[in-house]
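Structure Section — protein described below
Tokens — whole-number codes for backbone shape
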Amino acid sequence: MEKTEEPLLTLIEKAKLGNQIAFSALLNCFWNDVYGFQLIRTKNENDAEDITIQTFSRAFDKIHTFDSSYEFKTWLIAISKNLHVDLIRKSKKNVLQSSDGSNNEAIKKVLDDAPSPEDSLITEQNLVALLGYIKKLKPHYQEVINLRYFQELTYAEIAEKTGEPINNVKVKLLRAKKLLAEIIKNQN
């Protein structure tokens, strides 16, 4: 148990400093836990996926508030639960979605100029084969991949075009790249 806690705390500290690789590692490590939790609660894959993306977006936005005396997974699940409760309240009140002025500094500091392993794998593929692989993704993942890599839009431009917060765009793109890389690896 101690072996997994020390690297996790190191990843969290790096994420607090805005390290994109640490964010990616945390996302990969805890995605299934949060998604599974939401799938049980919502009984809907799309809702579970959307709430999971929002959970990581919120967590990365507020990572500086994480207290290491608690379990990171528990903290993520609490965020996820609160987001789901908020979603239910909003749908019951039938309130239109509005953007809040929350602090997005942690995510804004994440640099994406260094290609991740997923980026390298994507760029090495034949374009025709790559398009075939992309078609295997869910439509909302296809959209962010297309906007980022084929239309070469910035995160802010993608957020504006999709009407989503920039944090959600970043997390969704990170997840899309991971899924695409898995599809490509499984085909080769």
Summary: Confidence is low (pLDDT under 50) at residues 1-5, 94-113. The domain at 112-187 is CATH 1.10.10.10 (Arc Repressor Mutant, subunit A). Residues 37 and 77 are 8 Å apart (CA to CA). The two ends are 35 Å apart (CA to CA).
